[in-house]
Specification:
This protein has two domains: 322 residues, no CATH class; 129 residues. Helix content is 58%, strand content 7%. The protein contains 20 helices and nine strands. Helix 1 packs parallel to helix 17. The longest helix is centred in the first third of the chain and has 39 residues.
């Protein structure tokens, strides 16, 4: 990693949901965090990830979270490397690993539930390879059911595992290999969707979530929009190697190719899927390349004593440099960017830690307009006293139009006064650069006064609340985890 890890805001609303369940003893089918219109059922498909994260955070704090993350990452690498080495030489696997690491880093710069999808996909790909070598129907079905139930409760990415098995079934059918157990396993999936706390409501919420447009979320944009086009360049190189292997050996000699192509299409459409493609590509491509002329060239080059010695001499200092860099970057440190320097360094996420600390100190209660990212942090810190207007669950919990209303208010666009009149919030938490900041100052009739300010966030509250005014401009604000 290039530096201390930024805690992903999704983790906060995941933990807040599980904590609410613990506090009340009732698992919420509807939303309990927002005052704006929400849908029913509000199916949070990452609730299981939130439960694990909550237990880890409360028991071990930030170091525990990071250790757990490194354990998961190592498990993914070990599973993928073992699978790649089954039918390939170490030389080819090492070459492919470099490209896979480059692709896998893009889109996974924070701690998030998607790591479980990566781990379980590696497990599924291993199961499918086992099935190619020696089909064991009963064992496969049992493993599929157990793993899929776990996956469904952790992350909506379980559809990737479903797609992998379906593509494998098609390939087995084309090769006239046993596939009844594959069809039987796939047939259990609709019933497995009920094995969550949401019960019969899960399919409704799941479909709404995966079919919801995410065009305003950068990671769901096209691969051509990656910074510096690094993702597109690496993706193109990976595809070229696939094309080369298919041309030299023929598509029928490349097991798992159908799923790889499906993953490639998904990655091309959405940056978010690039790590999944990278994982599937790394598991399969070394075996594709090993029997080819290119694979033989890698093996023969490494077999030469001079080349092998040169690689070793280059690898040792590189490994040492990476270890030193990792140690300097505090691999067990979690960061909540909240300071002026984080703005200057263009941190991808900013947390209103100082503003929320102020609201807690003055015992603020009521409805608080929040931006997309800070909303989850507010719910984690101030629920149930404070309800938010929006957070990262917008495709899970919020009714159509809520996001647009939020943007209208914070952007001080035509109709922003009507939004205030409709919801009558008690406060507004916003980044200092939003136009509504100046608009509220120029509109005393709106009835709001700025009660808090730091270098990153401001808080406006209803004048009749009589909250004390606090300025932390030019100061470091508290940013404790969690």
């Amino acid at each position: 990693m290039g530096g201390p890890q930024i805690f992903d805001p999704d983790g906060y609303h995941e933990m807040a949901l599980f904590r609410h369940w613990l506090w009340t003893g009732v698992f919420p089918l509807g939303d309990v965090f927002a005052f704006t219109p929400t849908v029913f059922p509000a199916v949070h498909h990452e609730w299981g990830s939130g439960a694990i994260l909550y237990l880890c955070v409360t028991a071990f704090g930030a170091p525990g979270v990071m250790v757990f993350r490194w354990i998961l990452s190592l498990a993914i690498f070990v599973l993928a490397a073992r699978l790649a080495l089954r039918r390939s030489s170490a030389a080819v696997v090492a070459f492919c690993a470099l490209l896979a690491i480059l692709l896998g880093r893009i889109g996974f710069t924070t701690i998030r539930a998607g790591v479980y999808t990566m781990l379980l996909l590696a497990v599924f790909l291993t199961l499918l390879d086992d099935d190619r070598l020696e089909p064991r129907p009963a064992r496969f079905i049992a493993a599929y059911v157990a793993l899929m139930v776990l996956w469904i409760n952790l992350h909506a990415g379980w559809v990737v595992g479903l797609a992998a098995v379906a593509c494998h079934a098609v390939e087995q059918a084309l090769r006239r290999r046993p596939l009844r157990h594959l069809v039987a396993a796939l047939a259990t999936t609709p019933a497995l969707m009920f094995a969550t706390p949401y019960g019969r409501y899960y399919p409704i919420g799941w479909w709404r979530s995966i079919s919801h447009a995410r065009d305003k979320v950068p990671e769901w944009s096209s691969l051509t929009n990656t910074p510096g086009h690094a993702g597109l360049i690496g993706f193109s190189a990976a595809l070229l190697l696939l094309v080369y292997a298919a041309a030299r050996r023929g598509p029928r000699a490349l097991p798992g190719l159908l799923f790889l192509l499906a993953a490639a299409v998904a990655a091309c459409r959405h940056q978010r899927h690039l790590p999944l493609f990278a994982l599937a590509w790394f598991c399969a491509t070394p075996a594709y390349l090993t029997p080819t002329l290119l694979g033989e060239m890698f093996e023969s080059a490494v077999a030469r004593r001079r080349v092998s010695r040169a690689i070793t001499l280059a690898a040792l200092p590189l490994a040492a440099a990476l270890l030193v860099t990792a140690a300097r970057n505090h691999p067990l440190t979690l960061v909540l960017p909240a300071q002026a320097k984080d703005v200057a360094e263009k941190a991808p996420i900013l947390y209103p830690t100082g503003a929320v600390d102020y609201l807690a100190r003055v015992h603020f209660r009521g409805k608080l307009f929040t931006e997309y990212v800070p909303g989850a942090y507010v719910s984690w810190k101030l629920h149930p006293d404070v309800r938010v207007s929006l957070d990262g669950r917008y495709e899970v919990a919020y009714a159509d139009g809520v996001l647009e209303e939020n943007e209208r208010l914070f952007g001080a666009r035509p109709g922003w006064r009507e939004v205030l009149a409709r919801y009558q919030p008690d406060g507004i938490l916003l980044g200092r650069s939003y136009p509504i900041d100046a608009a509220l100052g120029a509109t005393p009739s709106a009835g709001f006064v700025q009660v808090y300010a730091d270098d990153v966030f401001h808080v406006w509250a209803r004048r009749d609340l009589g909250l004390p005014v606090l300025s932390r401009k030019g100061q470091l604000v508290p940013a404790p985890f969690p």
